[in-house]
Design goal:
The protein is mainly alpha-helical and 194 residues long. It has nine helices and no strands. It has two domains: 52 residues, Arc Repressor Mutant, subunit A; 133 residues, Tetracycline Repressor, domain 2. It is elongated. This is HTH tetR-type domain-containing protein. It holds the Pfam family TetR_C_28. GO terms for molecular function: DNA-binding transcription factor activity; transcription cis-regulatory region binding. It comes from Caballeronia mineralivorans PML1(12).
Length: 194
């Protein structure tokens, strides 16, 4: 039986949820401890009790959303069969698609962190390095696989920045094509031995 979260954990989660709401609605410039306190209906002191700096809060926001995406990732992998091929690549493309389609995306939190302080980006940088290594190991053509992975990120970031001229349907169709291994096999070249 799962234990219910303590009052302190509930308050901490409410603060993170409020931060996500503010980031999504108003942007990083409006994310202040005062704004979070108003959004949560708690005192600014309660916010600073749980998070001593905006940087610490943003790290927690990123971790909180990353954890929720981990559930999506596990469910996505469970829905695929080994015959589908290139599991890591498909997983990461599907995750970037989910990031665009889901509100309160961790990508928005990451962009807000970058705007404020680039040092907390070490965690996602390491995560991306692990993803790239996993994709390289399983792909018959690592360069083509990484090109597809980067294309997925390009679609996601253009959308998150509000720069994409594509309709939702066009973007969805392109994500489908990135995920479809059969569309790429004729372009695959065996990796070169160095």
């Amino acid at each position: 039986m799962l234990e219910s979260p303590t009052r302190s954990e509930q308050t901490r989660n409410a603060i993170v949820e409020a931060a996500l709401t503010i980031l999504d609605r108003d942007g990083a410039a409006k994310l202040t401890f005062e704004a979070i306190a108003r959004e949560c209906g708690i005192s600014k002191g309660a916010v600073t009790h749980h998070f001593h700096s905006k940087s610490a809060l943003l790290k927690e926001v990123f971790q909180y959303r990353s954890d929720s995406f981990e559930v999506f990732r596990r469910n996505y992998l469970a829905s695929r069969t080994p015959e589908d091929g290139q599991q890591a690549l498909a997983l990461h493309i599907a995750t970037t698609r989910e990031m665009v389609e889901r509100s309160r995306s961790p990508a928005r939190a990451m962009l807000s962190i970058l705007a404020d302080d680039p040092t907390p980006m070490e965690v996602p940088r390491k995560m991306f390095a692990q993803q790239v290594e996993q994709i390289r190991k399983e792909a018959p053509d690592p360069d083509l696989a990484l090109l597809r992975w980067e294309a997925g990120w390009g679609l996601a970031l253009y959308t998150l920045f509000g720069l994409s001229p594509l309709s939702d349907e066009e973007r969805s169709r392109l994500f489908d094509q990135l995920l479809d291994n059969s569309r790429w096999t004729s372009f695959e070249r065996p990796s070169r031995s160095d």
